[in-house]
């Protein structure tokens, strides 16, 4: 297997401070299309945003959508978006019948559904500054909806509690040396089936973006991790030295790190459409 290095080496070369990884679920960098064929990015969903995940021919979705439309008519400053699985005729008919005037995001590679662990519809995700602050799943009531929209959305500033502010004062941060290119850092288990399912996407990314897979167990069978991807490195970290530095709770966990060494986005769990995130990271690095 190519590019195998010791975890300690990577620690010396890259990390200049200990770190606590963000555990919050946040929007990844992305570029997706709307139902009208326009491009939408994560930057369009900053501030206060509501994502309504739905599919056609779902009576529960239709009823919930009407409730949300009514609730939002009395509230301002919330960017609402419908998230649909494709741009089919049935989706177009659904949007027309519901008289939707929101953004309609086509999530055909299930990036957003994967990041926010949407297992059934309707599901509503409430975001503030790109961070998940509220969630409603199928079966929610009118009162549940009202409560969710008023708290935490009742305060646009979203001040942290004393406990949160106190915690933020003592949380260390990641410090890196300058990188030549953005980096995808993935922590994976040697026998982790969920990790293995993400490897084809990771290998594709490693053809265009610097990529490092950190394996957190003794590697007896290297086959799943073997690849000729041009920009791939493998790190063995069976003692969780590097995983501890990044405060990795479990695998798979991924980090995207920019050329200044700042963590752009991190996520624990399987991510479909990881290539969309990599494309957005690479394009922004090129423009900036």
Description:
There is one protein chain. With 288 residues, the protein is α/β, with parallel strands linked by helices. It folds into 2 domains: 4-20 and 172-287, 3-Layer(aba) Sandwich (Glutaredoxin); 31-159, 3-Layer(aba) Sandwich (Glutaredoxin), CATH 3.40.30.10. 31% of the residues lie in helices and 25% in strands. It is built from 9 helices and 15 strands. Strands 4-3-7-6-5-8-9 form a 7-stranded mixed beta sheet. A 6-stranded mixed beta sheet has the order 1-13-12-11-14-15. A two-stranded antiparallel ribbon has the order 2-10. Strand 6 (79-84), helix 3 (89-98) and strand 7 form a beta-alpha-beta unit.
Features:
2 domains, 15 strands, 288 residues, six-stranded mixed β-sheet, alpha/beta, seven-stranded mixed β-sheet, Glutaredoxin, single chain
Summed over residues and divided by their number, the pLDDT gives a mean of: 86
Question: Roughly how many Å is the radius of gyration?
Answer: 20 Å
Low-confidence stretches: 5-9, 158-175
CATH architecture of the largest domain: 3-Layer(aba) Sandwich
Structural category is alpha/beta
Number of domains: 2
CATH topology (level 3) name of the largest domain:
Glutaredoxin
Task: Give the name of the CATH superfamily of the largest domain.
Answer: Glutaredoxin
Order of helices and strands: EHEEEEHEHEHEEHHEEHEEHEEH
Percent of sequence in beta strands:
25-35%
Query: With helices defined by DSSP (H or I, 4 residues minimum), what is the helix count?
Result: 9
Strand order in the largest sheet? 4-3-7-6-5-8-9
Question: Mind telling me the CATH class of the largest domain?
Answer: Alpha Beta
State the end-to-end CA separation. 35 Å
For the sheet with most strands, the description reads:
7 strands, mixed
- The total beta strand count reads 15
Envelope shape: elongated
Task: Classify the helix fraction into a percent range.
Answer: 25-40%
């Amino acid at each position: 297997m190519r590019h195998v290095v010791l975890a300690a080496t990577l620690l010396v070369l890259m990390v200049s401070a200990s770190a606590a990884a963000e555990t919050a679920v946040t929007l990844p960098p992305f570029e997706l299309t709307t139902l009208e064929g326009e491009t939408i990015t994560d930057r369009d969903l900053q501030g206060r945003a509501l994502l309504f995940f739905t599919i056609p021919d779902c009576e529960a979705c239709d009823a919930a959508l009407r409730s949300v439309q009514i609730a939002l008519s009395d509230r301002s400053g919330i960017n609402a978006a419908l998230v649909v699985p494709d741009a089919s005729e049935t989706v177009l008919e659904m949007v027309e019948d519901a008289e939707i005037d929101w953004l309609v995001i086509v999530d055909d590679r299930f990036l957003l559904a994967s990041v926010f662990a949407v297992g059934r519809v309707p599901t509503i995700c409430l975001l503030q500054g790109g961070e998940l602050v509220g969630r409603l799943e199928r079966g929610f009531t009118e009162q549940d909806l009202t409560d969710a929209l008023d708290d935490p959305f009742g305060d646009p500033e979203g001040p942290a509690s004393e406990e949160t502010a106190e915690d933020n004062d003592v949380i260390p941060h990641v410090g890196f040396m300058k990188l030549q290119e953005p980096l995808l850092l993935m922590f994976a288990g040697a026998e982790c089936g969920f990790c293995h399912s993400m490897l084809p996407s990771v290998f594709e990314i490693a053809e265009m973006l610097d990529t490092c897979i950190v394996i957190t167990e003794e590697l007896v069978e290297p086959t799943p991790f073997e690849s000729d991807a041009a920009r791939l490195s493998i790190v063995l970290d069976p003692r969780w030295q590097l995983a501890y530095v990044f405060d990795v709770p479990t695998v798979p966990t991924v980090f995207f790190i920019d050329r200044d060494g700042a963590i752009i986005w991190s996520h624990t769990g399987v991510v479909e459409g990881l290539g969309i995130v990599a494309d957005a990271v690479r394009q922004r690095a090129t423009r900036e």
